[in-house]
Design goal:
With 811 residues, the protein is α+β, with helices and mostly antiparallel strands. It is built from 16 helices and 37 strands. Among the domains are: 92 residues, no CATH class; 169 residues, no CATH class; 101 residues, no CATH class. The longest helix is centred in the last third of the chain and has 24 residues. The protein is elongated. This is CehA/McbA family metallohydrolase.
Length: 811
Amino acid sequence: MAVRITRRDWARLTLGSVAMHQLAVHGMLAQQPRTQVEFQPFAAATRRLMQALHSLGTPLPQPAEAAIEAALKANTQPQEDAAVQAIEDALASSVLMNVEINPEMRLSVSRGAARGELVQGGWRTFLVRVQNAAGTTPVLNVKSPQAGAVGRRSSLAITGVEDFTNGAVDEVEARNRWLGVATFNAPPMTPALTGLELEYRIVQLYSRDVGEREATLQADCGWGEQDLGFRSSLPVLFRCVAAKEVRTHIRDEHGRPAIASLLIRDDLGRVYPAQTKRLMPDLSFQPHVYRYDGESVLLPEGRYRVQSSRGPEYFANWQDVEVRSGDTAIEVRLERWIDPAEFGYYSGDTHVHAAGCSHYESPTEGVTPVVMERQADGEALDLASVLNWGPGFQYQKQFFTGHALPSAVQTSSRPVAHEGMAHDATAIAAREEAAVVDRLQHSASPPAIDSLVRYDVEVSGFPSSHCGHLVLLSLRDQEFPHTHEIQDWPSWNAPILRWAHQQGAIAGYAHSGHGLVTDSTALPNLVIPPFNSSGANEFIADVTHSGLVDFISGCDLWPFAEMNIWYHTLNCGFATPFAGETDFPCLTDACVGGGRSYVRLSERPQGDSGYAKWIEGLIHGPSYFGDGRSHLMDFRVNSQLRGEHALDLRVPGEVEVTARVVARLDPISTEGTRAIQKASPYDKPYWHVERARIGDSRNVPVELIVNGKTAGRLVIRADGTPQPIRMTAQIEQSSWLALRIYPSAHTNPVVVSVAGRPVRASKDSAMWCRKGVDVCWEQKRQRIRPEEMRAAAEHFDHARRVYDAMVAEFS
């Protein structure tokens, strides 16, 4: 049925057209090209356009909307012709650029009538008018050389690691990349052009800067648009209005000035500050930023939803913040649900990086200690080991001191220019870091910096990487003897382990699950893995050499793969501790401390002595590891903590196991938590307390593990309340015991010997290890240098003899 248009509607339509015409006459709107288009499809496209603008929170001015609404009611041919013109006039003041696609499918662009005004730190929405004489239907995007990312991601190449500079962004180029461009092709818009002779598209622009800036906008339809004459490129001068400096007021659970992780989104879910335009101390691959009390964030006027937290031991709280013309502040009061330090346990992540993977490698080769301190402190870690490795090794090694970095050193450290390095890159890093330090030092109430950071080495991207990546902690010297570059290092791991121990360091295997994944998710299982990657591979041989390897690491990959080799070697009497790690930002770039260890100490670790005590406690003392969402504290066997005294039963008998256990689940399962709970064990997140939730309850199981098997089980309510537990186990032979909430937390083992005999818990485990040596050797020998082959072969032969002897003990 035809829609009747009243005299009032036509008056509004006519007045709207007249008003738009008057603006054009007075030079406020540029005259734009006209084209003929069928009214019905054009009207449908216009309705979608208006819906999309409303969904973005950027509707047209009310007079323009009224004129369009009136025009859309046209129901006769003369009215429709006038209506198309009225809609074009109403949209003209929002058009930033006109795109013309001629019948030969060549692009040309011209300036529209929209004012070139942007807002610092925020997005502005514009229209693109597309006159499509070719009737083509490609995806239309707008791009700009000023819209490139400030940094770039590493290729994570293990070969050719010396070349990490191709494509680096220097200071001048980083400064020039001030613009963000997003072409809106999501519903209700169509993903591509419809082929209609005339339609409008939406582009959004973000400014990092304030003041006048020029950008070149280019229409991109997926073919060679940049023909002679640069007809598809349009230089535009923008005026960028200053954003508001929104101050943060952050207090911890004790009311002290603190740091928090802040995730800031607008009503459309867009993240602020824009990730691609961030410089230190903010990282482009993280949606959140870290702010100390008194620091600020730049936000344009508007409404925001802000999440604040500080790692898995804190609640994540949400608040609405409206930024207006007056003073605005983000007020944060952090809340903990558990503080392990109250029970004498201090957290650490033994494997994080300041370069490579998701870290940009420019303007510097990674980031500086100030940034890594902020990352660790922002996740409430007491200790973090920053490991220099292949990408950026030559640059990052300047921050290695052989000491734990106290706050005074960390906040005053500066990048040092070395011969051959990009001085522009060093300058921009130093300037950004200086600004951060200055804000902290001149704050009215400077926050305490609680995290201890030490730089060491991960042997990754080195010739021995194929045998497994090594974590070297407490080094005095990070350069292997008689080497000039990382390609000169040994091609297998045992020589590196011995060198590390010679200087008093400790060494272990990183991200142990790599190369150890099988079709079985049972723990333990007897399937022989391929040993074909960079996890705890050579470990199967190294562990048979007394004192050669100090620990094994995980919590960043599949727990059944990480811990299967650990369980089997424990069953063979090798009581190697396990360390929680993140491998940030490689296996995860969410945050540091996603996997972490908790070590029992008499006080918070500080300085070199505190770092050394924490490491000693990890290797020999009471400790546990996991995702930080559950905790297994004060694990005792017959009242003794791990490492206190040797536990030796003269005859088989019963032992008592006690602990203080706490976990926290949301009271009610949500769609998101159920997705984690029911996810495949091969999918992320691998370690998460939600995987331990029993059905729809708020309960999780606590298991007593004896020689890899469940010997007791209790169910606790995961409401964040510490609960004492007690279980007993019958010990018939020398055994190792541990507690776990799988896959969220696990203690390091306590060994109970019977009549002084070593642990020989399982012939199957000894045979698994023996077969594993052969498989590992066949994988690794192919990449060991000829001059190192004899020593490596003997090393593996020794492991074969050790496991053969163990198997024989069961005969």
